[in-house]
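Standup notes
- DV: blocked on the single-chain target, sequence here:
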Amino acid sequence: MRGTIFRASALTEGAVTTETLEGVVAVSASGQTVTTEADFGTRVEQGAPPLKPVPLLPAPQLSAVPGTNVRPQLHFEFPAVTGAKSYHLQVSDDPQFQTLVADTRSDQPSFELPAPADGAYWVRARAIDSLDLEGHDAVQAFTQQLAPEPPKPPPPSPQLVKVTRHDLRFEWSAEPGQQYRVQIARDTKFRRILTDQTLSDGSLIWRRPWPGRYYIRVAALPAAETAAPAEGTPFDVPVPLWIRIAAPIVILIPLLL
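- DV (later): unblocked, structure below
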């Protein structure tokens, strides 16, 4: 009848259970009828009359369920309900539980389930008594939100620390045991790569090239073998001192002849 809310379940052993949540339900079998009022339930065995209605178990306490789950598993645990032999738990993405994400039972008031996709969800739990009658619902909303992965560390920032007559020395912050891929190019797009090396420490000694602007970049391995920062760090190779001294002399010689 309108205004009546009840549950009916057919069990594997052939029995049928009826749980009345609101209103009144008449259950008939083998020529006998029992009136099951709200908060009561009954069970019918095959070929037998309905059992005398018994009170439904109270709803479990879900107050300890966290409002946000940030783990890749769902863990629900709540105090045991007196008189319960098992528990029924459901998870839905709909507050009316028209669709179910999980539907499971356990002998203990503890459940471990794979976490669904991030979003808003509702968990519903019931205690089950020795007659397999399911008690009142406990419903709790929660949000699934996996903790974001920590940001990747920035690529090493190489610095030109020493210029000698024949070599350039670069250094960058390095982790013990980490390997690094180092590239030097004449252009920012690294189309003209002059050296491409894999090193196990945070330094590079490279032969001194012609004066001008160059670019260096460093990528920590293991990444894809082609991995490297999108941009390189510019550095300038100065004109050697002996050229700066000799150049005026070379220019003056023709003037003196």
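- Follow-up: The CA atoms of residues 85 and 130 lie 6 Å apart.
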